[in-house]
């Protein structure tokens, strides 16, 4: 079987003309990075490479020879190859396109080293040593034969130092001492590339909620709450990447490695359609806003029951895969959607479906959520929508909805019960959506001055004049950074919340670090995500030294694990002859879309950050815009200190305080839900009183 390489590729990056040699036309070869471990478990059509059967259908004896000559299957194909393709075509009859693709994938995964990314290593005793990375873990290959295998479940840390690569393994029962496997790489760059690839594979394949999806029969997707259908909060929101990999093997690997064993099945399934009844997939392309900015508007809760045919009578468009918010595109006036009170209108932006945040879901996922509501006991669909045009463009403080009142003297336990109830019912997310994103009345005039416009990464993410960090200079004293303070339990936490430096603002960034007396920098993004630059690298590779104006930065060490990187730097003021040690912590486990599906790594990172914090010094914290992930981290640390002092925790109040100091802190309801669930998790695991059995 052959296949057609007609692939439509959407590039998220620009290719420099300097890297293209020769004359046009130029040909780009796209390779598979992550391989499907079990094609039979795919829930959605993933492949775009179609074999001959899917291209031409069943073989017809009257077809003249050479009918596949014009199809390009593989590089440098010859007549013998094409003849073999034609001879194989009649052997596969009666398969649909999707079944033919599945048959091809099942055959492909039986090949040697399928899905294994090989990295050359060095060993004095074995010159042909390779490190292989795949869905199940890391393996060592001698002469391309697997000699040892370390599943992800047994790997607790992956790190490197210069040219040495280390795999730290979980101790087996009865063993003492740390179990570490070490190999030597050709150079430090190759070592770092291997580590980066391990992080990428581990992140892609090991989504914990894959187990939850595979157990949907034992864990209900929705449950009754006061007459409404609410999605079970245990089922977390998933990103686009997770939807595509939710059926991959769970974290637990087989007891023995088997790189080649195919699990062939013949109960082929066609991909499910992406629409439900009269819901249509209306593709639309809009400019993607980096801060997911939403227009102001009235929030309405619309309840709809389906008609006797199970239809609601409206169409939707949008989703994270279409790069636009989910909105109502059409409403049939004679349908339940057109007759309900309040009525659903075209243009309404959908925020919640049955209490579930859908801001990071694809169009097809949303359709599935709507369809599932018809199968519930009440069959009612509850939509929280934002209706444009019915609200003022901005609310002044006296017009803002008052924050929810809390009984005086409420305990930590009571506040956690309130938080859990608000999350499960969806009311907390509704209150989050009503908060102002920018505090009315606070000017941002300095950031908007013509000489400062190019120093802002995003044109609508700007610091308030009253809280901006002012550099010590008569001129050129602007940086997109804000002073942010929280006061949990009588103490004061001081942060410098900044955007990710641009190539021409790295000097400004290091000036702010020096002038604010900071010794710890927290970075919550990778340099690029989805092919887009999120932050310029403002530090040198170890052991290099780089000058930023009169400041000099030397990187001494770089220690990496699967969640974050720790760097030790020295910052030198060359004019004063003074030095300062800087610790740089970079969190690398935040997914490109949405939020982490499990808060374990994030909470470990927060603890590592707190161990480095000096009481009197500010923490310099940045992501890309300096508002989303930065706001999540500040909210989390503030909540931790409140819990440690047995004080009640109210995330909405913390967030309101943050937005009074830097606009739009904690950008999305998905981020807000994540930090609230992380707070609840810490409370249950560390602070919740144990239940003593009654006598």
From TrEMBL:
Location(s), subcellular: Cytoplasm, Cytoskeleton
EC numbers on record: 3.1.3.48
Domain called Tyrosine specific protein phosphatases: residue spans: 600-673
MF term (GO), any: protein tyrosine phosphatase activity
| Source organism, top-level taxon | Eukaryota
Domain Tyrosine-protein phosphatase intervals: 428-682
Renumbered residue ranges of the record's region Disordered: 244-278, 394-414
Q: Does the keyword DNA damage apply?
A: no
State the UniProt keywords alphabetically: Cytoplasm, Cytoskeleton, Hydrolase, Protein phosphatase, Signal
> Which regions span the lipid bilayer?
none
Where the record annotates domain FERM, the positions are 1-209
Which InterPro entries does this entry report, sorted A to Z? FERM/acyl-CoA-bd_prot_sf (IPR014352), FERM_2 (IPR035963), FERM_central (IPR019748), FERM_CS (IPR019747), FERM_domain (IPR000299), FERM_PH-like_C (IPR018980), PDZ (IPR001478), PDZ_sf (IPR036034)
Gene3D superfamilies attached to this UniProt entry: 1.20.80.10, 2.30.42.10, Pleckstrin-homology domain (PH domain)/Phosphotyrosine-binding domain (PTB), Protein tyrosine phosphatase superfamily
**Location of the PDZ domain:** 301-373
Classification via SMART domains: FERM_C (SM01196), PDZ (SM00228), PTPc (SM00194), PTPc_motif (SM00404)
Keyword Hydrolase attributed: yes
Where primarily located? Answer: cytoplasm
Cross-referenced CDD domains: FERM_B-lobe (cd14473), PDZ_PTPN3-4-like (cd06706)
Pfam families the UniProt entry points to? FERM_C, FERM_M, PDZ, Y_phosphatase
**What is the similarity comment for this entry?**
Belongs to the protein-tyrosine phosphatase family. Non-receptor class subfamily.
Q: What is this protein called?
A: protein-tyrosine-phosphatase
The species this protein belongs to is Astyanax mexicanus
User: What taxonomic ancestry is recorded?
Assistant: Eukaryota, Metazoa, Chordata, Craniata, Vertebrata
